[in-house]
Amino acid sequence: MEVKIKAICIKSIDYKDNDSLITLASLERGKILATVRGSKKQTSRLRFSASLFCFGEYILNVSKSGRYTVTGCDLIDSFIPIREDIIKFYLASIMLEILEKNLVTPNDKLILQTIKSIKALCYNEQEEVCATIENVYKSMLISGYGFPKVECKVCGKKSELYFDESSLDFVCKSHKVNKGVLLKDAVIQGLGYIYEGNFDKLEDFDLSTRQNILYLLVIYFEQIADINIKTYKSYFDLVKRL
After folding, report:
1. 8 Å CB contact between 156 and 171
2. In this model, does residue 43 exceed pLDDT 90?
3. Confidence check: pLDDT of 61 > 90
4. Which residue of 26, 170, 211, 237 has the fewest CB atoms within a 10 Å radius of its CB?
5. 80: part of which helix (H) or strand (E)?
6. What is the DSSP letter of 160?
7. Across-strand partners of 59?
């Protein structure tokens, strides 16, 4: 049986001698695994379809046992600028990993949000860290998780806040039980903008503040969703070396 799906490649690993095993996030069938035969060969006409970020209409053969094999792909966008910029590559990879880890059941909104964010990052429609912050936050909400209001959960104070990694709440110094992470005023203000949906205002902050906000959102997402997002660690390791 042959099926057509609109999908983005979110994971690709070498398989056997010349094949690739890819994970596709599809609008029609959610997350599926598919084999691309001969993709490691330079002459393969489907080589591009096994690349991360490849977004297209995939043609798949479905075996009687339910296994998928890619037999064709009409490219929509390969997001080439992401492959040419290592910072963009790592930030976009964070988006892909979040999608891969949270796409347990078909979820068009989550897939489309990721593609929209990758497009914004790729073609400079939005500052790259801001685009990633918006993706992480909206992916969190789409996946069914909330984010606490940026104020002390006990008294409502909105300044001199700590983030309690045990309770996943914001608390002031007077109501801090655990050690917590003291947040800078700019980070608190930025989180407030995010909570209100004003992502464009994040560009008013310096890069370090935006990165701190991204870090906080990712570790929050990791804990509340009980997932391990490895790529953000690689991004921050890279940033330290630059």
Report:
1. no
2. no
3. yes
4. 237
5. helix 80-83
6. S
7. 4, 72
